[in-house]
Amino acid sequence: MTRWLVRRLTHAAATFLVVTILLFLLMRIAPGDPLSRLVDQQQISADEMAALRARFGLDQPLGRQFLTFVTGLPSGNLGVSIEHYPDPVSTLLRERLGPSLLLGGVVLVLNFTLGIWLGVLQATHRGSRLDRWLTRLSLTGYSLPSFWLALMLVALVSLQWQLLPAAQMTDPLLSADASGWERMADIGRHLILPALTLSIVSLATTMRYQRTAMLEVMRLDFVRAASARGLSATRVRWRHAWRNALFPLLTLLGLWLPFLVTGSVFVEAIFNWPGIGSLAAEAILGRDYPLLQGTAMIAAALVLAGNLLADLGHLLLDPRTRTA
Amino acid sequence: MTGAILETLRTAWRSPSGRAGLLVLGLLVATAILAPPLLPDPLATPDPIAGATPPALAHPFGTDPLSRDILARVVAGTRVSLSVAGLGVIIALTTGALVGLVAGHVGGLTDTILMRTVDGAMAIPRLFALLLLTLVWERIPLGALILVIGATGWFGTSRLVRGEVLRLRDAGHVTAARALGSGSWRLITRHLLPNTTGPLLVAATLGVGEVILLEAGLSFLGVGVQPPTPSWGGMILDARPVLLTAPWASLFPGLAIVITVLAVNLVGDALRAAFDPRSA
Amino acid sequence: MLTVRNLRVGFHLGGTLVTPVDGVSFDIARGETLALVGESGCGKSLTSLALLRLLPPPGEILSGSEIRLDGEDILALKPPALRAIRGGRIGMIFQDPMTSLNPVLTVGSQVAEAITAHERVGRQQVRERVLALFEEVGIPDPAERYRAYPHQLSGGLRQRVMIAIALAAQPDLLLADEPTTALDVTVQAQILELLDRLRESRGMGILLITHDLGIVAGRADRIAVMYAGQIVEEGTAAGVFANPGHPYTRGLFGSIPSLTGPRVRLSPIPGVVPQPDRWPTGCRFHPRCSEVMDRCAHEAPVVATHAHGGTCRCWLVAEGP
Fold first, then answer.
1. CA–CA separation, C63 vs C43, rounded Å?
2. Fewer CB within 10 Å, N or C, chain C?
3. What is the DSSP letter of C228?
């Protein structure tokens, strides 16, 4: 188990190094350097430019630049934003982390409770009309562009019917002495539409994972053996089949980790949700390369961490690997 | 290869939902090819002062804020979207297959370097990779957009093909074929391709759906298909300021995306079910 | 106790109906072991699954079939009453104890749930009963094993756990589907020994399903030989062993009894059991039969009484040689 962990961590570290190199190279593909954009926008003199270059280390050879970039990473140094100059990227990301976690967390809970339940329902009614229609419905959700769905919901629910707020996380007009409950209810109202949008477009994946995993398990001998014991269908389904159909979902859960933190670029941008996703959208508009790169770096690190955690969770939850 | 594609189409046709998807796709492609001469110029702005007008006989889908005919633009957008997605996926598949073949066939250090790179590249979410790449251009040309989409979509394919090469290398019939003096190329065409076309075509079909959504998203963010070339995502971006006053301007391009992607996914789903009956 | 009449199991495959179990009838009395013998693919396992209505979909029991337990019609039972039979009055053990135990649950909890599914008992009491069952089926260190996961036990111990599960609710009848096929030869003997002992101490009936006539000798009271969905010979174990009537049974024994010379060793029966969708006309065994006659290919043999007092589905027996 320790050896497995060491091997797995080494692999993740090596992969992260590759990610770093790739992202660093990506940044250098851009014509000129990240600062030239700044010059275009803000009309800086050549002297000032040279000073800035020296300040950001862009006058150094490429190898040295890469070294600076990499050695800065452990202390959370992701460079400096152009758009929000001179704020460091890491500070900007930290400020926006909370709202992304909130939105992502709510969607995650919705997605997994509903997705697991519907996926199991589909598997136990395999081939039925219910199964077919659930597949078609979820596939339709999967085929929706999230930004368009968000716009349509805003147009109908917020603008036309005026039921829910169209943007932001809180109501700026909320009185300063509002109670904690009122504040929570306010955030909750703002949360509904973005959470709904993201749940609709993401539900199909969880349902399919669960359905496939459940079908895989339901044909195994021990499920029939459990029925032969006289257990109820519900108990056989959940205690025996589902417990074993849980492991693929761990992988899926690992895939959610980056999303939880970086949020959805499109949905956060449309609802002006103050998370990292909308920060990334702002970075695109402002051509803020370092900021976007920093976000991508965080996302990639979390992808790797998610994979690692999923494997670790599998290891801990499966008695066969735990005690082997 | 043509045979494999025909066989795939036949497979998809056998399932009711796959058939529905194929019919819709066929209709969309036919419209995109045949309809433009019958429609107004998608770029013409006959009456910019009138702004967006609701659907009417002259303009069945209405006009956008610049008085351009939305139906004509949606149809033109179909051409753009389907070509970008189709070409992008073909580039991705070819690259992935080549890299996988080389990695599996050559092995050693080449294999290690290629597969480590793939590991790293797969960790970067595709949307971020695309955004970083498209931002390299001030206004990305269509050809570059296709290349960029291809360049970010081949990692999974290369793993699949490499795995198949390694599996075949250990399997008896390739050893036997090699003993009989078959060349590498013959090995690839006779043994590798037939074994991988199924999974590859499923991946390609589902990839087309994914890429249409990605391209629409990029265009919506202004870093995909550049105006004045009509694209569904770009049309929704243009219509955003008039979301409530001219809802048709965002509704129809959005519906076009949903219908196209759903049709593609229905076909992909039918294929997946056919190739993996246990999960059907 | 158990009465099975004209049991037919059907699968609708692509519009055609195939019947891998095609008109099987037998009885089992309390304290009696009936061995159901045949090669794999002849329908034995489906027969036992059908008794508990556990057929894998799309398999179904066709109308006209009859399964009664002490007169109660199992095929008419509603789900709750059926659950009371499953594991309650009829226990079942399976061929491979590794795949028949849930890998992520402790074996103790799997035995415990077999008890609580049928009786309302307190936690402590359930635990004590599980430990007693472990003792009874010969699992050493019961308290230690209670917490073990299936993969931590040997194949023999796993099968003992399966037997404990089957016995948990004191069944009247035990269905044992190839209970020793996945085990070592020495462990095989121990498990069979255990089943024999339990039958005597508990007075259960046992349906022992096997392809191996060797393990039947000295254990079964009666033998039913199955081929291609039908029972082709049935009789007392002693009678069938001494004087098998059907060429298939003789093939299974691997020897032909001869009145004059010594027993001649034969190779296994040539060929394999045909698939249920292409059963031969006439006698279903005729293409593989060493004593085939002209009429065997066209006319299905009638069931006739054989010299051993049981029945036989063969023209040789019906007509005499």
1. 18
2. C
3. T
**Do A23 and B236 lie within an 8 Å CB cutoff?**
no
Contact between residue C103 and residue A221 where contact means Cβ atoms under 8 Å apart = no
Chain A residues within an 8 Å CB radius of C174: none
**Chain A interface includes C88 (CB < 8 A):** yes
Asked if pLDDT for residue B241 goes beyond 70, the answer is: yes
Nearest to B135 among A148, A258, A284 (CB): A284
| Residues of chain B neighbouring A27 (CB-CB closer than 8 A) | 132
| C231 and C313 Cβ atoms separated by less than 8 Å | yes
Contact between residue C138 and residue C164 where contact means Cβ atoms under 8 Å apart = no
Say how far apart CA A244 and CA B53 lie, in whole Å: 57
Give the pair of three-digit tokens for residue B254. Answer: 């959005």
Q: Could you tell me the end-to-end alpha-carbon distance of chain B, in angstroms, rounded to an integer?
A: 26
Q: What SS3 class is residue C226?
A: strand
- Which of A8, A82, A149, A151 to probe by mutation at the B interface, max B CB count within 10 Å? A151
- DSSP one-letter string for A271-310: TT--SHHHHHHHHHHTT-HHHHHHHHHHHHHHHHHHHHHH
Judged against a pLDDT cut of 70, whether residue A39 lies above it is answered with no
Query: Residue C256 corresponds to which amino acid?
Result: I
Coil/strand/helix, residue B108: helix
The residue type of C124 is Q
Lookup: tokens for C87: 């594991």
Give the number of other Cβ atoms within 10 Å of residue C274's Cβ: 17
User: Does the beta-carbon distance from A155 to B244 stay under 8 Å?
Assistant: yes
**What burial class does residue A181 get, using C-beta atoms within 10 Å of its C-beta: 0-12 exposed, 13-18 middle, 19+ buried?**
exposed
Distance CA C187, CA C181 (A): 10
Tell me the chain A residues in contact with residue B262 when contact means C-beta distances shorter than 8 Å. 139-140, 143
Asked if the model's pLDDT at residue B55 lies above 60, the reply is: yes
How far, in Å, CA of B6 to CA of B20, rounded? 17
Interface with A, mutate which of C104, C111, C147, C178 (most A CBs under 10 A) = C104
B85 beta partners: none
B172 pLDDT higher than 70: no
**In sequence order, what are the residues at sequence separation of 6 or more whose Cβ sits closer than 8 angstroms to the Cβ of residue C134?**
C111, C142, C145, C146, C160, C161, C164
Radius of gyration of chain A (CA): 24
Q: Is A144 helix (H, G, I), strand (E, B) or coil?
A: coil
Residue corresponding to tokens 């589909």: A122
Lowest average pLDDT, out of A56-65, A143-152, B93-102, goes to A56-65
Q: Comparing C-alpha atoms, which of A273, A287, A132 is closest to residue A207?
A: A132
Q: What is the DSSP letter of C287?
A: G
- Residue C169 half-sphere exposure, CB side, CA atoms within 13 Å? 26
Q: Residue length, chain A?
A: 324
Q: Does residue B231 contact residue B77 with C-beta atoms inside 8 Å?
A: yes
Split at pLDDT 50, 70, 90, the class of B62 is confident
CA distances from C296 to C85, C256, C268, C273, C287 (A): 41, 20, 21, 17, 9
Instruction: Report which of A321, A313, A310, A314 is spatially closest to residue A252, judged by C-alpha positions.
Output: A310
Interface ipTM above 0.85: yes
- Reported residue count of chain C is 321
Could you tell me which of B93, B59, B39, B38 has the C-alpha nearest to residue B248?
B59
pLDDT in the model for residue B189: 64
**How far, in Å, CA of C171 to CA of C2, rounded?**
12
